[in-house]
Fold this sequence. Notes:
Blueprint: H1 3-7, E1 11-14, E2 17-20, E3 26-29, H2 33-43, E4 49-53, H3 59-66, E5 71-76, H4 79-89, E6 95-99, H5 102-105, E7 112-117, H6 126-130, H7 133-136, E8 137-145, H8 155-163, E9 166-174, E10 188-196
Parallel strand pairs: 4-5, 4-7, 5-6, 7-8
Antiparallel strand pairs: 1-2, 2-3, 9-10
Helix pairs in contact: 2-3
Amino acid sequence: MADSSYLGSTLLFYPDRIEVEEGGVQVMMAWERPLMQRMAQIVTVRGGDILEVGFGMGLSCDAVRAQGPRSHTVIEAHPQIIERARAWAQGAANTEIIAARWQEVITELGPFDGISFDIFGGQDQRLEFFGQLDRLLTPRGVATLWIGDDRQLQPPLRAVLDAQGFTHRFIRVSAIPDPRCTYSRSNEFFIPIISRR
């Protein structure tokens, strides 16, 4: 589903998942919680200022908040999820929800000590986003992203990171996908930790 189609779609929210109303495309499911928690731990390892691109079900955002960062910026583009993200952020003095596509606001933001990139359809946007990582990440900062069932970064993304002086390693996390899940079949996931050489 293209970015513009997704952003104009109606979403259905269930306790354990988010789906696109037309066609039942799955956006996110609660079984991802262990992965989101681990991604949050990665990006908050140095504390400081954290950027999350994508709110989804708020699973990672909950885990980031629990780590008590100095600031927590969340970019979300889907109108229905924006409403949920704003409700989630109410009363949190150090949390900012930016209601926009990340491409519209990223040049005005940063740098951050930790960055997590996990948006619906994000695979097509990885190169563009991570091509700006050198400016967005502090010298000792760390970044991560959702790569689904992949066990390595795709060569074009590795090349973009290498060109900016970044290295990466993986940690393995176990999670059991919901039997209804159509976007993942593995119970073993590899989460990248991206940092400067």
